[in-house]
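Onboarding guide, step 5: your first structure request.
Type a short instruction followed by the sequence, for example:

Predict the 3D structure of this protein.
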Amino acid sequence: MTEMTFGDFVEQNKHFQKLESLIPPTTPISLLLTMDEDELVANSPPELKILMKMLTRALFESTKKFSKQEIFGHDPTTLIFNNKICSTLVHGLQGSGKTPIDALARSIAQQDPPLQGIIKIDLSWCGLVDIDVGYIKQIVDVIKPQTLDLSGNRIHGYSGKVQHLTPENNPVDKDILYLLENLTFLIISANPFASIDRLDFFQYIQQNKPDYLKKLIWIPNGTWLLAGAWKVMISPEHQDTVIQTHKQFFKI
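The system replies with structure tokens like these:
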């Protein structure tokens, strides 16, 4: 994955464009995060000090470490980030107080002592998109949970919409396949990925990785499961696997 530079950052946040006279566009964001916040502001000309302060506040506050109270619910085996995290494209600059997923990945990698004994990570309803999936994979690699909840995000993959991309060479699909290989359950319902738009992906796993159907939770609830509209995406010989997997997960 290509590291975000200050130029990429400015593309998403045009109001910081004037700071490119002080910070080269090719500067990696990770390098900026190693610099002293007060020194960056002090070394700015008077007319740019306020803007630099806004930048450093956005960057440095987005990389804070989460306390146990913030990320654990009543269950110490579950990390709950839903509605606390945003896409790296937003980068925490919309006044929401949310932390971008790339900053979360760095924070988790730097936890000392490292997080252990985590069974589930909840990243549902965070507005995450395709570019964020690589960071999600990094988090899973460090924590090694059994279950990952990505429901209610905006992950698509676009394999079926781009002629040269298939589940085997699409970076997003490859990361999803990696997650399925290493998790007990991957919840991806209420994403474009779990719709007829990605029939190509579901056909791929039925033909090449049918056991992944025992791990993939892509139907939102028991009512939708029993309604059966999803069957147009699954061949008859695999439909019972989908039914039993979701019944086990939903405990119905």
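Each response can be followed by summary notes, for example: The chain has a mean pLDDT of 84.
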